[in-house]
Amino acid sequence: MLRLSDPSRRLNAGLVAMAFVLSLLAGRLVQLQGLDSKVLQAKAADRREQSEKLPARRGSITDIAGHELAVTVEAREIYLDPKVVEPAKRDLVATTLATELNRSKEEIAAKLAKTTSRYAVVARDVDPLHAKKIMSFGFRGVGAKRTYYREYPGGRLAGGIVGFVGVDGYGLAGMESAYNKVLAGRDGEQSFEMGGEGQRIPMTRSTRQEPVPGRDVRLTIDRDIQWAAQEAIAEQVKASRARSGSVIVIDVPTGRIVAMANAPEVDLTHWQDSPPEDRRNRAVSEVFEPGSTNKVITAAAAIESGTVRSDTVFRVPDSIQCADRRLKDAHPHPPESLTFAGIIAESSNVGTIMAAERISSQRLYDMFRAFGFGARSGVGIPGEEAGLLPGWQGWSGSQRCTIAYGQGISVTALQIASVYQTIANGGVRVTPTIVAGTTDGHGRFVPAPAPKRTRVINERTAREISLMLEAAVGHDGTGTEAAIPGYRVAGKTGTAMRYDQECGGYCGYTATFVGFTPADKPRLMALAVIQDPKKGHYGGTVAAPVFRNVMTFALKTRKIPPTGTKTPDVVLRAHR
């Protein structure tokens, strides 16, 4: 008979195998729910938890009266979560967003095709009402996040001063850069738990740290005078076919910058479209040889030394030998007897050299330094240059002569403006300022610290030089085009050969006029610089009209009354 094997052996083997498998599962279960439960819970929470930055509202930049030059506007960022967009609706989503946001349908479709991505930006700086309309379509996977964008109501107005921000909201130039920490505030953050389909899970843990808004920055400039300065310099740069130009207006007693204009001026709304050289503030970053506007420093050094007075007479030829060079006046003339006041008024290079020969090179150099040459002004504008002032020990024989009338050194427009502010202010230099103050965390205005005040020359010297500068604007001077009816104007022309790196030498000219008014009690000073004009090149004909137009507007805007005194007679020539 056929005997069957004993089934108990197979059953026992099966039971052993099942017990082994169950023990493995039980051990794994104990590990997952017991030993590793907290670790796994944390991992699961991390996967569900999402964090989101809450951008801080950037502070405003305003003019002295509170008119906004840079302001932050609330906006929305439209984004996609391609993973949760329904495949059947991708074409509709792409078409709708392309129409609403003026984007390419292909561009949006390409973002939707990347289903491994959970966040794809479609558009930034979208108006909140427009974003609300887009969200009303109810598309899954389409979201809107609150953001801010920077708006510049004036466009080009004070572009070089205000500066601009990048796409990340960080200041890249001007006051936007210099005061970025003040303006930016501090971003907040919130976290919440999200489900697999991208929806927020209700009743789960969440945290939120509120953003801290940025503070406002108030500038010293006057919006109206700034506009007039920009219009005047842009018009003259175009009329003279110049390369560029700058205008600065300063309140004499306080050193506050009322206007600082450049041409071309960057359009802050479309700053990316401007060439890099037009994005900088030329008034502080472009260096040039000052020419005859520099002669007042030589005059100050000579008068302070006691070797020269305004009525000291010099027999001035039209050329003079300095070491290996023969230096000339701008125009040929027979030898003439000029007072020192006449030398400055008529802007004689030869006469200035003759006066400079009466003082040491070190005294002249020290006076340059005292007026601020060879150092940044302290205004705090990004990109400011210090210029170039060689040490007196290294001056050559001819260089000592040329430096006396403004060739062989390099300065910025602001440095020259500061020199004339000092003279107009009775010899006291006030560090130029561009920021009037900021707001605190409660929105209250906090004035900026008072600027440093330094006596450079004595009051009598400043008054003598001021009278010389009035004569320069009078009938016998070089600055007659700067005269303003009803006001006593003191000022100086400058025409310097312009060093150009592109041509590797002196090519073209720098035309300048700088002055102040009312001369008997100065309130405002202004400087106009025209770089490389092709139609005319003398400061008296190219730059002086800009000064006159800007200053006339500023006087009316500030309601400064006409001068109540007459200009004293100043002897320019002595007959022998």
Give the gist of this structure.
The protein has 576 residues and is of the alpha+beta class.
General description of the model:
This protein is of the alpha+beta class and about 575 residues long. It is built from 20 helices and 21 strands. A hairpin with a 6-residue loop joins β20 and β21. It is elongated. It starts with 6 loop residues before the first helix and ends in a 19-residue tail after the last helix. The model has no long low-confidence stretch (mean pLDDT about 90). This is Peptidoglycan D,D-transpeptidase FtsI family protein. Pfam families: PBP_dimer, Transpeptidase.
Proportion of residues in helical segments:
25-40%
Principal-axes shape call: elongated
What is the percentage of strand-forming residues?
15-25%
Overall average residue pLDDT: 90
Helix-strand category: alpha+beta
Radius of gyration: 36 Å
End-to-end distance: 163 Å
Tally of strands: 21
- Which regions are unreliable across 5 or more consecutive residues at pLDDT < 50? none
Number of helices: 20
Largest sheet: 7 strands, mixed
Protein name: Peptidoglycan D,D-transpeptidase FtsI family protein
Keywords: Membrane
Main location: membrane
InterPro entries: Beta-lactam/transpept, Beta-lactam/transpept-like, PBP_dimer, PBP_dimer_sf, PCN-bd_Tpept
